[in-house]
Amino acid sequence: MPKTSARLLSLLSLLQARRDWPGALLAERLAVSPRTIRRDVDRLRELGYPIVASKGPEGGYRLGAGTRLPPLLFDDEQAIAVTVALQIATTAGAGIEEAAARALTTVRQVMPGRLRHRIEALQLSAVERSGRPKPQADSGVLLTLSTAVHAREVLRFDYAPAHPPAPGTDIPPRQVQPHHVVTWGGRWYLVAWDLDRDDWRTFRVDRISPRTPTGPRFTPRELPGGDVSAFVVSRFQGYDGWPCRGEVILDLPAEAVTPYLSDGVVEHLGPGRCRVVASSWSWTGLAATLGRFDADIEVVGPPELSDAFARLALRYADAGRGVARCRTVGDRKRTAGTALA
Fold first, then answer.
1. CA 15 → CA 25, 37, 44, 207, distances in Å?
2. What's the mean pLDDT when you consider all of the chain?
């Protein structure tokens, strides 16, 4: 029996390695007869593995898709990859954190000791850039959106506004051609062509309530730039959900600003000048962020940002005068002390 069990695991590993296997080649690889291969295939089917057989001189076997999840067989690299992915999934914000944690426990329990020690030494933690809580996306909504993307079907959904609407306000459902479901900055987003606004839009998944059924099939449009990663980065750089967004021109080369502006867009304007678009939680906070660059600043807009710079200028001037007063008093005390001595 141990020899048979080991052979079954070897057969399963071979079936997972490639799409189709001729029966004669499997028999040759395992050094058994074609009849033994047929019996082993029947045993694997009894265990829940959906193995499809094709007849004829070139007949063989294929591991198909089943209606339930049978026991899995991983090599060392696959086991480590699955464990790392599950650790990351526990902080993915996709509503699967508890299930991922339980799956991680299950994988660790059945993992060989030599691998378990390696995994336990690899502890991953997701650290947010700020203390702002990230809303959780519902895993069922994610599945619905992903299915519509794959099927290329028009989506209709209710989209909760960022701020509560006035009482009695009727918000019509959105109608879009879904393109991608992506994650950015700890949140999940749907990238889609908005049929009502005739433009590309990104929607936060945690604010989407899908309506059923889905609409007709459509021919996908090409994203600007042709790459979803570049498109998402271009949409979110310098915004990230902050309410205050402004634009300035700095008397600094773009390459001197870019490494220190983690959440903004920097545009080269020529030797020693660049345009910066950035966001913050307040206009004063944005002005302080931009003011930390040791360079002259020209505010492009909006007026609220100019007002914030003016308030900071007065505040800093008062702080500077306070330091000057302290120095003057200190000098007087030192002078008086010298005279008394």
1. 12, 12, 11, 43
2. 78
Task: Locate 211 and state its tokens.
Answer: 């309506």
pLDDT at 67: 46
pLDDT tens figures, 243-291: 788 899 999 988 788 777 766 777 778 778 888 888 887 899 899 989 9
Q: Which H, E and C letters describe the chain, residue by residue?
A: CHHHHHHHHHHHHHHHHCCCEEHHHHHHHHCCCHHHHHHHHHHHHHCCCCEEEECCCCCEEEECCCCCCCCCCCCHHHHHHHHHHHHHHCCCCCCCHHHHHHHHHHHHHHCCHHHHHHHHCCCCCCCCCCCCCCCCCCHHHHHHHHHHHHHCECEEEEECCCCCCCCCCCCCCEEEEEEEEEEECCEEEEEEEECCCCEEEEEEHHHEEEECCCCCECCCCCCCCCCHHHHHHHHHCCCCCCCEEEEEEECCCHHHHHHHCCCEEEEEEECCEEEEEEEECCHHHHHHHHHCCCCCEEEEECHHHHHHHHHHHHHHHHHHHHHHHHHHHHHHHHHHHHHHC
pLDDT (tens digit per residue) in 132-164: 556 677 777 887 888 899 889 999 999 988 777
The string of pLDDT tens digits covering residues 298-340 is: 999 899 999 999 999 999 888 888 655 665 555 655 555 554 4
